[in-house]
Amino acid sequence: MSKWMNFERTTLWKQLAASLVVSILMVLLAVCAARLIVGFSYAPLAVFWDSLLLFAVMAVVHWVTRRTVATVALGFALAAFFITGNGVKSIMLGMPLGLADLKPAVALLGVLEGARLAGAVAGIVVLLGLALWGLWPGKNRLKWLLLPPLLVATILGAVWLVNGDEILSSESGVSRVDVLKQRGGFLYLASDAVRYMRNDRIPSRSKVAHALAATKARGSSMPTHARNIHLILVESFWDVTALDGFKMSSDPWDGRIRDWWNAGGRSGVLSPVFGGATANAEFEVLCGLPATGAGRVVFSEGITNDLPCMPAVLRQYGYLTTASHPYKKTFWNRDTAYAKVGFEQYLPDQAFEMDDRDGMFLNDRSLLFQSLARLNLLKKDRPHLSYVVSLSSHYPYERDRTKRPDRIQVTPAAVALGNYANAISYSTEALADYVDALRDMDPDALIVIFGDHAPVLDSSPDPYEIAGLREGGTTLPEGYARLSLTPLIVIDGKNGPKSMGTQPLYELAPKIVEMATAGQVSLPHAEAILHPDMRTRNFLASMLVPGNEGWRRCSRDDDKSCEAGRDSRNELRALRDDLVWGHQYALQMWDTPNVGKHGMTINRDHYGCVFDVEAWGPQVGSKGQPMNKQPSGNSALWFKVRRVRGDPVLFVDDERADIVVASGSASASYAAPQFIHAEGEHRVSYQCEDEAPVAFGKLTITAK
Predict the structure, then answer these.
(1) Which three-class secondary structure state does DSSP give residue 270?
(2) How far apart are CA 511 and CA 44, in angstroms?
(3) Distance between CA atoms of 96 and 92, rounded to whole angstroms?
(4) pLDDT band at 4 (very low <50, low <70, confident <90, very high)
(5) I want to staple 466 with a disulfide (CB 3.0 to 4.6 A). Which of 245, 339, 594, 648 is the partner?
(6) Confidence bin at 690 (pLDDT 50/70/90)
């Protein structure tokens, strides 16, 4: 430590020079890590900006705290997050990190388990720990109060200097990933934060009036013949056979699904998201409104008002509206968002028998046929909207290979693509069987199948880059429409598959309502959504508009159709913001009564979860010694289980650990348990969400 203490006594200029060198080395290390991990490359100018801003931040922090080692730790944490983390997200999900990612990031941890979850949590804890250590006030508490305004002034000054927030607008015609590559992670995130905080999502009456100037509300009446609607969101449903450069041993889609899609003219919807944020695709298909962009998720942002969405409007006219999503009810805020859009019943994981899992998700065949059994029990006095969200084909595409072995080989080998192809093969087979059963049971029903987004296919290799859709994480101009487009299959009762063309996903809701009710029921805002001059698609912070040769991405200096598209996009945003978060001026101007406050029942046929233990151990340990010591140094308990359902967690006294289940066995690992240091008996129990702990044994710690 003497060397570091001597550093404090060197001249200011020497300290600054050393800090600059350290900053440059950290940035270069983070840049190399992004390159090695996912193949993401930064431009020399980005290295310059990142080095300069990291140096400025470290210099300010060190001047305030006078703690050299802690400041270096802070710099390491910032470089890892802002530079390496930004590169990884850009490759995996097509967009850099942004301030709006904070809420979704917490939610996304919920779809990880086992080693992936442990790695993600450990990384976050380490980086946060280093950052907090570096920012801790220490003895200079009064001086430390200067730190926040100094850091804010440093960052805002850099953003102002390069006009950073303006370059991030979709009007600039510049890819967000390209901005990151040229400007670096620090300047990009600072610019994004400024842009995020400037956002005002409560439009004025005059702004809403301007947006609705060319439209009027569509009226509705009680339908004389209301057909049942089966709306099925298939997770990551996409046609990977269209990826140039790869060959598959057989079609990943079930032949019936392929035939129905072809018979319907290979229709498609343009999704607002890539690789994740399914809830934004849900919002669009349920509400007929464009979702938020730049990382925001409407459900997570919190819906203020009860909305005139498809479930709510159909419910007004006698429909039973149900949503089935066999996962945690709080994920993406669905337990409140589904009520706001008008569902009468919500069936989360606790409404299903979790009898067959792929990784942490209920297998699609089990989900679909449990849903079918419920449909068979419904009374025939009300038409119904049944909305089902599948999960088997969710990243990382895990399967129970004892029941569903590989049956598709991909050439050249690409692990994620191969796993996805096999996952979607089993999903579409189950889906086709389900649709056949629906058509036999309900031949007049309207069946709508669509994908929420294209799949994440990792980076070693990146199949999208090999296929010419991306380059170094940057989506190429011709790749935007293809990556946004997901398949759409509409089976119009006895008429069979129907051609729907290609449309933004938010256009689908008003069309479904009018098809199911022979035009007698409409969403009040259908006129605005389906207006031929208001077609636009926001995707990866860029804007797409229709043309003679299909949908295309607009750049800064594009023609009048892009200018008109920008106007339309702004008008649709104003309508969305007014209905979702604002004063709902649109409904007042149209003299349309609101749909009223929605009540929703959350079904819990299977309360809590089950952790039926046949045997477990070790049940005795020595004080201070790890139990069943793992290579990582952790203590672990093992379990032989008869049956497991749900997501139980283990407690030894009050110390919590996640339970990892695999083929009749389970384990729970503790990194630094305190119970091994306390002699005596310790209660062992498991607990499920919203349930009391269930004790099933005692663990004894003896003297050494």
Answers:
(1) strand
(2) 50
(3) 10
(4) very low
(5) 245
(6) low
Task: Give the per-residue pLDDT at 1.
Answer: 47
Name residue, tokens 């889906």: 431
* Tokens (6 digits) for 308: 């005139």
pLDDT digits (tens, 9 = 90+) for 275-308: 888 999 999 999 999 998 766 888 888 898 999 9
Closest by CA position to 621, among listed 696, 691, 682:
682
Q: Looking at residues 407-420, what average pLDDT do you find?
A: 93
Is the CB of residue 225 less than 8 Å from the CB of residue 518? yes
The tally of CA atoms less than 13 A away on the side-chain side of residue 370 is: 24
- Tokens linked to 226: 């209301």
The Cβ of residue 596 has, within 10 Å, a number of other Cβ atoms equal to 11
Q: How far apart are CA 450 and CA 103, in angstroms?
A: 26
Three-state DSSP state, 169: coil
Q: What angle do CA 348, 349, 353 make, to 5 degrees?
A: 125
β-strands 268-270, 502-504 pairing: parallel
Mean pLDDT of 265-271: 96
Rounded CA-CA distance 108/261 in Å is: 31
63-66 long-range CB contacts below 8 Å, 24 or more apart?
Answer: 64/140, 64/143, 64/144, 64/146, 64/147, 64/150, 65/134, 65/135, 65/136, 65/137, 65/138, 65/140, 65/144, 65/147, 66/8, 66/138, 66/140
Report pLDDT digits (tens) over 182-208.
Answer: 888 877 877 777 776 666 678 889 998
Partners of 548 in beta bridges: none
* pTM for this predicted structure: 0.80
Give a three-class secondary structure readout of 491-556.
EEHHHCEECCCEEEHHHHHHHHHHHHCCCCCCCCCHHHHCCHHHCCEEECCEEEEEECCEEEECCC
The tokens describing 233, both together, are: 């969101």
Query: Is residue 310 over pLDDT 70?
Result: yes
